[in-house]
Amino acid sequence: YVPFKKGQNKGKRIADIDVGSLEWIIHESGMAQEIKDYADKVLGEKYLEAEEEAVVDQTDNEELPF
């Protein structure tokens, strides 16, 4: 679904827009609840991916005890 017809997100799918735009859709836009729910799902997935990347980066940087 492409909710934007103008602006920086024109023509982008919800899955392809930045975190700030997703948060705006969820909390401040007047879009339908179904769209807000989908944006919330996508945002959650983006946060989960970021957490997983942080854990991998942290593990890669730890010194081995032996």
Topology at a glance:
Blueprint: H1 19-27, H2 33-61
Written account of the structure:
This protein is mainly alpha-helical and 66 residues long. It is 58% helix and 0% strand. It is built from two helices and no strands. The chain has helices spanning 19-27, 33-61. Helix 1 (19-27) packs antiparallel against helix 2. The longest helix has 29 residues, at 33-61. It is elongated and about 50 Å long.
SS strand fraction: under 5%
Question: What would the principal axes of the Cα set say about the shape?
Answer: elongated
Q: Rounded to an integer, what's the Rg over CA atoms?
A: 16 Å
Helix proportion = 55-70%
Describe the biggest sheet?
Answer: none
Strand count: 0
Runs in which pLDDT lies below 50 for 5 or more consecutive residues are none
Counting DSSP H or I runs of 4 or more residues, the number of helices is 2
Q: What structural category do the secondary elements indicate? A: mainly alpha
What is the string of helix and strand elements? HH
Overall mean confidence score, pLDDT: 84
How far apart, in Å, are the first and last alpha carbons?
A: 52 Å
Structure summary:
It contains 2 helices and no strands.
